[in-house]
Amino acid sequence: MRKLAATYIFPGDRPPVKNGLLVCEDDGTIIDLLEREDNWKEEASVEYYSGVMVPGFVNAHCHLELSHLHKKLEAHTGIGAFIGQINQHRKAEPDVVLKAMQLADRLMWAAGIAAVGDISNSNASIPVKQKSKIYYHTFAETFGFHPSRAERAFELAVQVRDECIKSGLPANIVPHSPYSVSEPLFRKIQNEAAKAKSILSIHNQESKAEEQFFKDGTGPIAGHFQHNIGLDLSHWQAGKRNSLDATLEFLPTENTLLLVHNTFTGGDDLKLLQTQRSVDNTFLVLCPGSNLFIENTLPPVQLFRKFNMNICLGTDSLASNSALSVVKEMITLHQYFPEVGLEELVSWACFKGAKALNIAEKFGSFEPGKKPGVNLLTGVQLKNLRLTEHTKVKRLL
Ligand SMILES: [Zn+2]
Fold this sequence. Notes:
Urease, subunit C, domain 1, 2 domains, six-stranded mixed sheet
């Protein structure tokens, strides 16, 4: 048994406990979370830490298989050029790709990440995930702009999903984005999702370019399709609905939905979302590090809070981020949105992410019987409970 005491313990799903004491089994299973009384006497069996103790983090959006692209791409290019750069640099020696994933997985574990929602377009990451101490839920992602690609694209995603499941890794099929999936491909994903009752994830309103492509069929996304991959756009019917509106009909309301990025999501989109879906099974995944890298902008976090949306956090890939660290994303958010308190940030980083990946019975909060992992945050301003640029995470369990 281990007894861990800290200046503050944030349980992930409720207010912090000052001078808290966390009692766990040696394997990390939570037994109890107690408050130390004023007359508490130091005990030899208790480990004392100055700082803030939080559960293991949930990284709700990652692309492990792009880890070899770390520091390879140019920043602030916008989404059209970013996708072009990914296509250009993605191919690499399998050994290089594997080593980069292994390193990224180890660093995520060391950075206190306990569970990951990972987008995969291939089976490359399976051996890494099988050996990892991290829990991975794989989103076998499919895309194909032209309707003629639907059959083949869907088959490939089925293969990736089936290989994951055969390897003992939870997985299901998801669409890449509103602009990269044709209607026949969306229909296949929709049918499969309804059958499997799976967790859906989609990149949503990540760029102004997405809005433009749906509005009039022009802009950087049209440019990428035509000039980088030579696609025929003649079937594309722009001007009807915006990207979220056009996509929601393919995402069954019974399925949990992770909308990733939402950098250009506005009040009308949130109203639409709330008329069509329950807030309970809809999650906005924020990836601020990646948004700053690609578009040099951030999503309207105040608006999401005003609409009481469920928020969780993701790192996106090393192609568009300097590290796969949830605490780094929290520091960025605290810096740009100082009105968000630490308790709320921790709930996004832990509990809400666990709900989104449907693993809250084990991860995301300090509840008896769960095994969420235990992290210590140091370099936190304890007087006003604010993260600083010096905030670091140390995994205790
Ligand atoms: Zn992504």
